[in-house]
Specification:
Blueprint (H helix, E strand, L loop, with lengths): L13 H8 L11 E5 H18 L2 E5 L6 H8 L5 E5 L2 H6 L1 H9 L4 E5 L8 H8 L7 E5 L2 H11 L5 E5 L16 H12 L3 E5 L11 H18 L12 E4 L2 H6 L8 H14 L3 E6 L7 H6 L17 E11 L6 E4 L3 H4 L11 E3 L19 E7 L4 E6 L13 E6 L2 H5 L4 E5 L10 E4 L5
Parallel strand pairs: 1-16, 2-3, 2-9, 3-4, 4-5, 5-6, 6-7, 7-8, 8-9
Antiparallel strand pairs: 1-10, 10-11, 10-15, 11-14, 12-15, 13-14, 16-17
Helix pairs in contact: 2-3, 9-11
Length: 446
């Protein structure tokens, strides 16, 4: 029985979507819509691959933020290993065609299921593994009882196993100080042999950082945590282990580590020590799209070739003004897009749910700057299907908005904002940026 579940979530055909949208101007599109700038996301992808090459480390692209085949391909580039990490099995199943294509071309490819696996998911995993070369799929384990249950079902499968280490986020993973940690490593190594690949960490609390140093320190701390984990590995695995670390802020910090600064030199020394005995790779997910949460970490400079600023955000939400309330204590307008289109996650740098960009209906207007004047239009309140855009600053500075105006909104959290849409409308700022040039269908389900 084929337990592949993609057929449970049928997609609209890309051809029909392209017929509807390609060639249309942003100002003529129905709202709300999720809009990706292809030039920006490609630039973000290329920059990540470039810095990993300069540091001599591997890269594993997380696809959970966008869930599209097109952006997955941009994340790994046109040559070299195509290594992925996923948060749902549906993502892995939808990467099947790309993995098979890579393997047919002799290009290395792997897919790591980046969540400690639940027993009920193992049959689907085994089904997918049967269609791929041995060692293409990998899983995370952080609990010895869960490992025994997994191994009972998958003892004959050639699936790689990584042990998930908790380096401070406390969401998933086992701490190296746990009395059960040595037993877990020994058991995994004995049971799966060469399929034991190494250690994985996700430094998710790096989202709380506020500076380049915070992000760099997090990346260093994460590597040191995985180095500690290697100390209990049986000797026969020396030289074959993979240490995979990251979250977008800490992976972003790698941009700062190719400089001659003292902090960068210290990091390079640590990295050199680890690379002498292990393979080191970074992983990250939201970095092609970015969002206001990522900008708020200030993990790299706001200027330069690899700047981290609102202008680096590759996804915006297209919304429309449906009513105007100039008589209120401060100007407000209603948009027909709320939490289902923008997400409900706050951002630490300002009191809103999205910032209105300076284009379309706000062209020429002031754009809210959370580090300076704090004047501009923001999404100040949200309900399920509606949002209230509020003016922050003196009333005299406000550019008046009118019913029917289309607005572009930078979201707080791109992963959640995109989840409400079945596809992305793609523009390209290198081709003007105001016309749809493609449509990318998002994967649905779990």
């Amino acid at each position: 029985m084929d337990t592949h579940s993609s057929s449970n979530y049928p997609f609209p055909t890309q051809v029909s979507l392209q017929d509807q949208y390609v060639g249309k101007k942003l100002e003529d599109l129905p709202t709300p819509a999720a809009v990706i700038d292809r030039a920006i996301v490609k630039g973000n992808c290329d920059a990540m691959l470039d810095v990993c090459q300069k540091l001599g480390v591997g890269f594993r692209a997380h696809v959970k933020s966008h869930k599209t085949l097109e952006l997955s391909k941009l994340q790994v580039g046109g040559s070299g290993p195509a290594d992925f990490v996923v948060s749902t099995l549906i993502e892995a199943e939808n990467l099947l065609s790309l993995a098979l294509e890579c393997q047919a071309e002799g290009r290395g490819c792997s897919i790591l299921y980046g969540v400690p696996i639940a027993p009920s998911a193992v049959p689907r995993l085994l089904c997918l593994a049967s269609k791929l070369a041995p060692g293409t799929l990998g899983i995370l384990i952080d609990n010895i009882d869960a490992f025994h249950r997994y191994h009972e079902q998958a003892r004959d499968a050639h699936i790689d196993v990584y042990i998930k280490i908790d380096t401070g986020y406390h969401r998933a993973g086992i701490q190296t100080t746990s009395p059960r940690f040595p037993e877990l490593v020994k058991t995994v190594a004995e049971k799966v042999g060469e399929s034991f690949r190494g250690f994985y960490s996700h430094y998710g609390h790096s989202y709380g950082g506020n500076s380049e140093d915070d992000a760099a320190d997090g990346l260093t701390e994460e590597l040191l945590g995985l180095e500690e984990a290697t100390k209990v590995v049986p000797k026969g695995f020396a030289g074959r282990l993979v240490l995979t670390v990251g979250a977008t802020p800490t992976a972003t910090a790698a941009y700062n580590m190719v400089s001659p600064s003292p902090k960068a030199r210290g990091f390079q020394a640590l990295l050199g020590r680890l690379k002498s005995k292990c393979t080191v790779e970074l992983h990250a997910g939201v970095y092609p799209l970015l969002d206001l949460q990522q900008v708020a970490t200030h993990a790299r400079p706001p200027m330069g070739d690899a700047s981290l600023s609102k202008e680096s955000i590759g996804m915006k939400m297209l919304v429309e003004v449906s009513s105007v309330y100039n008589e209120r204590s401060k100007p407000e307008v209603l948009i027909s897009a709320g939490s289902l289109a923008l997400g409900r996650e706050p951002c630490k740098s300002y009191p809103g749910w999205g910032i209105i960009a300076g284009e379309l209906g706000n062209k020429g207007g002031i754009v809210y700057d959370e580090r300076d004047s704090r004047s501009g239009w923001i999404v100040g309140r949200i309900s399920q299907e509606h949002g209230v855009v509020t003016w922050e600053g003196t009333r005299e500075q406000a550019k008046e908005l009118a019913v029917g105006d289309k607005l572009m909104v930078w979201p707080n959290h791109a992963c959640v904002a995109g989840a409400g849409f079945g596809w992305y409308l793609v523009v390209d700022s290198e081709q003007g940026g105001d016309t749809v040039v493609d449509v990318w269908v998002r994967w649905r389900g779990w």
